[in-house]
Design brief:
With about 375 residues, the protein is mainly beta. It contains three helices and 29 strands.
Length: about 375
């Protein structure tokens, strides 16, 4: 393997010197190499602006971070492009270790004041990539989303840590869209929005061993953003723990016409610790309560299983299945659910939801 050490091209791990160009130089050389190559970031703190690593490359590339990457304090310096670190059109890329810190606090402050702010940058993204491994990374304080996977296939994200304050806006942990064959295994995520969100076109997704909280839970959606939309199919979320999250596991769609669908989803072996809305299907999603479409969701939801889920709810309604009036939810299965409410009994709410239950189900099946 040929190694391209960013320090050889002028990068300095002093946290002050702009090392953007040396990183891009090392990538260009590695990507053009006929041999398997490594871009190596030694220990130290490296100040970098927007990094776009373009493929396709000639061989497998390993991107090994032993140091820490930090964004400039001025949030405009990365906030205008939408991406801080982007891998685009790369096949066979392995990203290992290290910490990235987007220093998002100034940007969040701008957002909260309603000031003139840039669109905000996603911290690390993979677009049009295939055969991806992201392992051992810590992502801190993203301006916007932490990790995004778009139009990609055969992606494995493992042993990752994601952290931003619970009140930081839109700092979702991992977002997947228009991608297939994505595995997320071993993640500790505490943030200001969804720990993980699967948007339109997410197919064959397996999520296991996630510690989620604080945050808004693990979501499919929101769907129904567009009238013509790809569906979500074959999703498993298992062996995970939610702690003090605003929601548990959730499927959400706007109440407007759409060609979208959700099929073959299994939420199983989950623990809820002081979680609001532990189990929720919301087809009247409208978080701000303003300008809601107030139509009927066209997203068709079928074949959803909630199994072996226990713990405590901070909301009296622990299970809410609020489905579309024009396209009812079908083949919903409840199995071995025990959710308690600190101040009394938990209840369930069902509307236009059809299916069955087996084992002990608390709160009671209302379908």
């Amino acid at each position: 393997m040929t190694t391209f050490n960013v320090q050889l091209y002028g990068a300095r791990g002093d946290g002050k010197t702009d090392s953007t160009k040396p990183f891009l130089t090392a990538w260009t050389l590695a990507c053009g190499s006929e041999a398997q190559s490594m871009v190596y970031i030694p220990r130290g703190t490296y100040l970098v602006r927007n990094l776009v690593f373009w493929g396709p490359c000639k061989n497998i590339i390993t991107f090994k971070i032993d140091g820490k990457l930090v964004a400039p304090k001025n949030y405009w310096s990365i906030g205008n492009s939408g991406y801080w670190i982007l891998f685009a059109k790369v096949n066979r890329i392995l990203v290992y270790g290290g910490t990235i810190d987007a220093k998002g606090a100034g940007y969040w402050s701008c957002r909260k004041k309603g000031g003139h702010c840039p669109q905000g940058a996603r911290s690390i993204s993979f677009s049009w990539c295939n055969n991806v491994l992201l392992s051992g990374l810590t992502s801190l304080n993203s301006q916007n989303l932490h990790v995004t996977v778009h139009h990609s296939s055969n992606v494995r994200i493992q042993n990752i840590r994601i952290r931003a304050p619970s009140r930081s806006p839109n700092t979702d942990g991992i977002i997947v869209q228009s991608s297939s064959g994505v595995t997320i295994s071993g993640a500790v995520i505490g943030t200001g929005d969804d720990c993980i969100a699967l948007n339109q076109g997410s197919v064959n997704i397996y999520i296991e061993r996630v510690l989620c909280g604080p945050g808004h839970g693990i979501s499919i959606g929101s769907l129904g953003d567009h009238a013509d939309e790809e569906g979500v199919n074959n999703v498993t979320v298992t062996n995970s723990v939610f702690t003090k999250t605003r929601n548990g596991v959730r499927i959400k769609s706007w109440a407007r016409p759409s060609t979208g669908f959700v099929r073959n989803v299994e939420f199983r072996n989950l623990v809820m610790r002081n979680v609001g809305n532990p189990l929720i299907i919301d087809q009247n999603y409208c978080p701000s309560g303003k300008g809601c479409p107030n139509q009927s969701s066209g997203v068709k939801i079928s074949g959803v299983t909630f199994a072996n889920i226990k713990g405590t709810s901070t909301t009296p309604i622990a299970m809410k299945l609020d489905c579309s009036g024009s396209h009812h939810c079908t083949e919903i299965t409840l199995k071995n659910i025990k959710l308690t409410y600190m101040k009394g009994a938990t209840t369930s709410y069902c509307k236009n939801a059809h299916g069955g239950a087996s084992g002990v189900v608390v709160p009671m099946n209302c379908m």
